[in-house]
Amino acid sequence: MSARVPAPLPRAFYARPTVAVARDLLGKVLVRRVGRRERRARIVEVEAYLGERDAASHARRGPTPRAAIMFGPPGFLYVYLIYGMYHCMNSITETDGVAGAVLIRAAAPLDGSDPTALRGPGKLCRGLGVTMVDKGTDLTIRSSGLYVADDGRSVVRIARSPRIGVDYAGHWAARHLRFFVPQHISVSGPRRNLK
DNA sequence: GCCACGATAGTG
DNA sequence: ACTATCGTGGCG
């Protein structure tokens, strides 16, 4: 009688400052359904992208065709193609009209399968079958087939570091906007704080 | 219309 | 350290 599957996080969860959403996404469960198959994985690594003023964010050029969705209402999925061969997935944050997104970089499978299969943003999307057709998905409804839920567990400690792959972004590259579960096998790149 | 360049990952 | 592979957006 208890819901075996936790409910999707509500829109209000995403309608907050991006850094708060990023931190709070750690430990949450990513639920992906394709047909009758459902996969679940715990989010262990994310990055915050703060909008127009953030030189590392796709929103830095304003609402271009690709990034316009970042300026829209929170709780929707932003997917983009990177290096012509991988996809990356983000949840939109902040209020409608204000750009912001959290890049989900890695998750730990909850079915006991290979803990490195979803390690890194490209592998995460590949492993969950997320592509451009999923851009714009509403993450707050079950019927989307892709959502984030709270199963009651929480992360004990959160580490932070500069974001990965944004060295071109001047002083924004140095800001500690990457959040992860320290020492976790499913985290990509450095698993402890640098600096 | 061009074209340099990525919020990456796998191999050497 | 090198590169596969292609949409995006700056430039003009």
Tags for this model:
195 residues; 8-stranded antiparallel β-sheet; 3 helices; globular; DNA-binding
Q: How would you sum up the global shape?
A: globular
Average pLDDT figure: 95
What structural class do you assign from the helix and strand content? mainly beta
Rg over alpha carbons: 15 Å
Poorly predicted tracts of residues? none
Number of strands: 8
What kind of sheet is the major sheet? 8 strands, antiparallel
In helices, the fraction of residues equals 10-25%
Q: What is the H/E string?
A: HHEEEEEHEEE
Count of individual helical segments: 3
Measure the end-to-end span.
49 Å
Determine the strand fraction and express it as a percent band. 25-35%
Topology diagram in text:
Layout (H helix, E strand, L loop, with lengths): L10 H4 L3 H8 L3 E6 L2 E13 L27 E6 L3 E7 L8 E9 L11 H8 L17 E4 L9 E3 L16 E3 L15
Antiparallel strand pairs: 1-2, 1-6, 2-5, 2-8, 3-4, 4-5, 7-8
The structure holds a DNA duplex (12 and 12 nucleotides).
Give a quick summary of the entry:
This protein has three helices and eight strands, in the order H-H-E-E-E-E-E-H-E-E-E. It has helices at residues 11-14, 18-25, 121-128; strands spanning 29-34, 37-49, 77-82, 86-92, 101-109, 146-149, 159-161, 178-180.
